[in-house]
Design goal:
By secondary structure, the protein is α/β, with parallel strands linked by helices. It is built from ten helices and 23 strands. The longest helix has 19 residues, at 260-278.
Length: 413
């Protein structure tokens, strides 16, 4: 069976991944990973997270995949006993010094995509160094992945969904050059996601989409700007059989900066797709409807439009900031939950109506999504609730006091 690996930035996200079918999760250790600008885990939090995961039969991997200087590598030596004691199942590294330190501590080592591993000979070298899993370069076509997997001495992992970087395997210097914030040390400010224009000294603008030049002297404002360096998101939900049959053992979802509902949705969709294939139901009646449903669910959450990356060709489509159909609007908080009748009492600070889609998130709850099918105030059925009211909403999964309540609202594009 293929392993489904989900990202997590906090405990709420971990719970969301577990509840939606992740086999494993990967988290960032504060100060040592490629997402320094978002919430990361302290050593104490990692120990708690490992316990939570192992209780559910899920593995946890720690990312220590930045470029490490001499001072950082010395600190890592001091941290390793704590990492080992945490019970984490593996550490993801890109630095050779970090590889040695982790290996010598007796912890399983996975080689990060940052290492840009692209051939079988590199696998042999890394096997000799004690690596047990390789996250292959994002720039490999499926044909090459099959060739590498055919004689691989270790597990291979590939990304199947999420943001793609304009730089080779994410090793970019643009943020460092513009803002003195190194992407290779986890500080990327993503200037590639801005709208850029290429204009020559004689005022000709290069339009990437049309691959042509046009004069801007008289019609500068009529030419659309474009996200020249912002690739669309990777989405391989339609190609699960091809990936599994390639010999890859682990499907990885990108998104350690993403919220719990994003992780919940993407994990659930890929879990369903993997299970459908492994049950021999991929080509059965109704499969195409599932594909369309999965794509619609993925389009409902944050995305920059979808592409298949380098699996079949070189990506040519660029993206806008966000093409999700819906935003989340904060509408209230859970006050109580009554298990016997499966109803949540919600204090509202915005309007709520029958038919609205709720997203409820909490540290223990994770992230759950449900359409409002019935609602009561003081025991009487109502069709809507307004700001300041407490309403009872039937919620089939257990939620908890203090959980945040959002509703999905259509975005104005």
């Amino acid at each position: 069976m293929v392993e489904l690996l989900s990202p997590a930035k906090n405990m709420t996200t971990i719970i969301s991944a577990i509840k939606n079918g992740a086999d494993s999760v990967y988290v960032g250790l504060d100060g040592y990973n490629m997402r320094a600008n978002v919430t990361n885990f302290s050593m104490e939090e990692i120990s708690d997270a490992v316990d939570q995961c192992h209780e559910a039969g899920v593995k946890l991997y720690i990312c220590i995949n930045t470029s490490l200087n001499q001072g950082e590598i010395e600190k890592l030596k001091d941290l390793m006993p704590l990492i080992k004691d945490s019970g984490a199942d593996a550490v993801i590294v890109s630095d050779l010094g970090a590889l040695k330190i982790v290996r010598d501590s007796g912890i399983e080592v996975h080689m990060s995509v940052q290492a840009n591993i692209s051939n079988s000979e590199s696998l042999k070298v890394l096997e000799d160094l004690g690596v047990s899993r390789i996250i292959l370069s994002r720039e490999l076509p499926i044909k090459t992945i099959k060739e590498i997997a055919a004689n691989s001495p270790m597990e291979l992992e590939v990304f199947v969904h999420g943001a793609m970087c304009v730089a080779v395997s994410g090793r970019c210097f643009l943020s460092s050059y513009l803002y003195n914030k190194s992407a290779n040390c986890g500080e990327c400010l993503q200037p590639c996601r801005k709208e850029w224009r290429i204009i020559s000294e004689d005022d000709e603008e290069f339009i990437l989409a049309a691959n042509e030049f046009s004069s801007t002297e008289t019609s500068l404002e009529t030419h659309p700007t474009t996200h020249l360096m912002s690739p669309r998101d990777l989405c391989m939900i339609e190609h699960i059989p091809l990936l599994i049959e390639s010999g890859v053992k682990v499907f990885k979802i990108e998104g350690r900066a993403r919220p719990a509902d994003y992780v919940a949705t993407v994990t659930r969709v890929y879990r369903e797709a993997i299970d459908e294939y492994e049950a021999g139901q991929w080509n059965t009646p109704g499969h195409e409807k599932n594909i369309q449903r999965w794509l619609e669910e993925l389009k409902n959450i944050f995305n920059r439009g979808f592409d298949t990356g380098f699996y079949f060709n070189t990506p040519t489509e660029n993206s806008s900031y966000n093409e999700a159909k819906f935003n989340k609007k904060d509408v209230g908080e859970v006050v109580n939950y009554y298990k016997r009748v499966q109803a949540a009492e919600i204090r509202l600070w915005d309007d709520l109506c029958i038919g609205d889609t709720l997203v409820i998130q909490g540290l223990t709850t994770g992230s759950i999504e449900q359409t409002v099918g019935s609602m009561q105030i003081n025991g009487k059925p109502v069709n809507n609730g307004i700001k300041g009211q407490n309403v009872a909403v039937q919620i089939t999964e257990t939620v908890r006091p203090g959980d945040s309540v959002y509703k999905r609202v259509l975005r104005n594009k």
